[in-house]
Design goal:
alpha/beta; Rossmann fold; 3 domains; 6-stranded parallel sheet; about 30% helix; MoCofactor_Util/Proc; XdhC_CoxI; XdhC/CoxI family protein; XdhC_Rossmann_dom
C-alpha cells in the first residue's frame, strides 16, 4: 500500500473515485503478504498487486466496479475446486481481499495520512471490512500516538479500536481485529483491518555475546529492527547473530553518538548494554542517558557490577535524574538461567515499560487487566486477532 499511496492521492486530489483492493488476511502459502494492494484508477489503470498474478484479473474487475458504484466488498480467493486456475490461487493459498472506494468523500483523512508518512511520523489506519450494517463498511479511523481521527460508527468502537491498535502501530505491524458490532471486545460482527505505516522501532544491543544473540531473536519476534554492535570484530559477525538485521563493528559509544546525530534513534528506541566492561559500557551509557529520551535503556550485570557502574557514571557527571532512567540490572525477576530465558526477562521489562505494566502475575491483580496507564504513559495493548471466520457469504468469491 505504501508504494502506491502517491498514486492513490493523485486521483483523490483530482476529485476522482478509485477502487483500492488490499490483502487483509492470508492463509497457508499465500503469494503476497498482508497489506499488499492494487489500485484501479477512475480511468481504468491498475497499479500494484495482491497476488503476483494468480487472481489479478478478477480483483481488477472488482476494483473497477467498486470505483464505479462506490460499494465496498470483502472477498476470499483460494483453491478448493476445479476453478483453481481460472480465479483461485494455484499456489494453494487463501487470501481475503477488501476492495473499497477511495475518494475525498469516502476517505477524507488520506492527505493527512500521507503527510505523516512522508514526515516519518508513525500513523496507522483501521478500516471496517465486515459489519452487519453495510453502511459502516469502509469507514476509517486514523490512529496516531497523539490520538485518533475518524469514526467507525460508534464512540465505543472508536475507543476500543484506537486503544487496541496502538500496539500494532508501535511495532509497525498490520493486523485484523474482531469485536462485537458496537466494539465489544467479546463478540463478533465487527472486523477491522489495521494498516501500520510506522517504521519499526529499533533495538540496539551492545555486546557480541550469547545473550545478545538470544535477545536479537526475541527483539525481532516482537517487531524491532535489531542492531548488534561491538568493537571486537572477531565476535561481531553476521554468522553469530542471524536474528539481527545488522551487525556493526564499532566502539559502542561512538556508534550511538553517530546514530543520535543522524536522527536515527527516537523515543521508541531500546538500548541494551550487555558488555559488563566499564571501558565499553560507561562511555556508552553516558551517551544514552544524556541524549534525547529513549524508550528504554538497560544494562546487564551483577549487583557488584551495577554498583561499580553507578559509581563510575556519577564520577563522570551523570546526574540523578539521568541515572533514574537506567534499568540496571536489566530484566524482570523470572529466575532466568539460559540466554534465551534471560532474553525473555529483558523483553518482558521492555514491554512493561512501554505500556505501564507492573510485571505482577495477572492472577494476583485486583483491578481490570486492561487498565488505564498512568499520566504520560502509553495505553496497554489489548489487541485480539480473529481466528479465521468466514466472510459474509454474499461477499465471498
Amino acid at each position: 500500500m505504501r508504494e502506491i499511496l502517491g498514486s492513490v492521492l493523485a486521483g483523490w486530489r483530482a476529485g476522482e473515485q478509485a477502487g483500492l483492493a488490499t490483502v487483509v488476511r492470508t492463509f497457508e502459502s499465500a503469494p503476497m503478504p498482508v497489506g499488499s494492494a492494487m489500485l484501479v484508477t477512475a480511468d481504468g489503470q491498475a497499479l500494484g498487486s495482491v497476488s503476483g498474478g494468480c487472481v489479478e484479473g478478477a480483483v481488477y474487475e472488482l476494483g473497477a466496479q467498486v470505483a464505479l458504484d462506490g460499494e465496498p466488498v470483502l472477498v476470499r480467493y483460494g483453491v478448493s475446486d476445479d476453478d483453481a486456475f481460472s480465479v483461485g490461487l494455484s499456489c494453494g493459498g487463501i487470501i481475503d481481499v477488501f476492495v473499497e472506494p477511495v475518494s475525498r468523500t469516502s476517505y477524507p483523512q488520506l492527505e493527512s495520512v500521507q503527510a505523516d508518512i512522508e514526515a516519518g511520523r508513525p500513523v496507522g489506519v483501521a478500516t471496517v471490512i465486515e459489519h452487519p450494517d453495510a453502511a459502516r463498511l469502509g469507514r476509517h479511523l486514523v490512529v496516531r500516538e497523539s490520538g485518533i481521527d475518524g469514526d467507525l460508527g460508534s464512540p465505543r468502537a472508536n475507543q476500543a479500536v484506537g486503544d487496541d491498535t496502538l500496539g500494532l502501530l508501535a511495532a509497525g505491524r498490520h493486523g485484523t481485529l474482531t469485536y462485537g458490532p458496537d466494539g465489544q471486545r467479546l463478540g463478533a460482527g465487527l472486523r477491522v483491518f489495521f494498516a501500520s505505516y510506522a517504521p519499526k522501532p529499533r533495538l540496539l544491543v551492545f555486546g557480541a555475546i550469547d545473550f545478545a544473540a538470544a535477545l536479537a531473536r526475541a527483539g525481532s519476534f516482537l517487531g524491532y529492527r535489531v542492531t548488534v554492535c561491538d568493537a571486537r570484530g572477531v565476535f561481531a559477525t553476521p554468522a553469530r547473530f542471524p536474528g539481527a538485521d545488522e551487525v556493526i563493528v564499532a566502539w559502542p559509544h561512538r556508534y550511538l553518538s553517530e546514530q543520535f546525530a543522524a536522527g536515527l534513534v527516537d523515543d521508541r528506541t531500546v538500548v541494551c548494554v550487555l558488555t559488563h566492561d566499564p571501558k565499553f559500557d560507561v562511555p556508552l551509557l553516558e551517551v544514552a542517558l544524556r541524549g534525547p529520551r529513549l524508550a528504554y535503556t538497560g544494562a546487564m550485570g551483577s549487583r557488584r557490577t551495577h554498583d561499580d557502574r553507578m559509581r563510575r557514571l556519577q564520577e563522570a557527571g551523570v546526574g540523578d535524574a539521568e541515572l533514574a532512567r537506567l534499568h540496571s540490572p536489566l530484566g524482570l525477576d523470572l529466575g532466568s538461567r539460559t540466554p534465551e530465558e534471560t532474553a525473555v526477562s529483558i523483553v518482558a521489562e521492555i514491554i512493561a515499560e512501554r505500556w505501564g505494566g507492573t510485571g505482577e502475575p495477572l492472577g494476583t491483580l485486583k483491578r481490570r487487566i486492561h487498565s488505564d496507564p498512568p499520566p504520560g504513559a502509553q495505553r496497554s495493548d489489548s489487541t485480539t486477532t480473529d481466528a479465521a471466520p468466514e466472510p459474509h457469504p454474499s461477499r465471498v468469491r
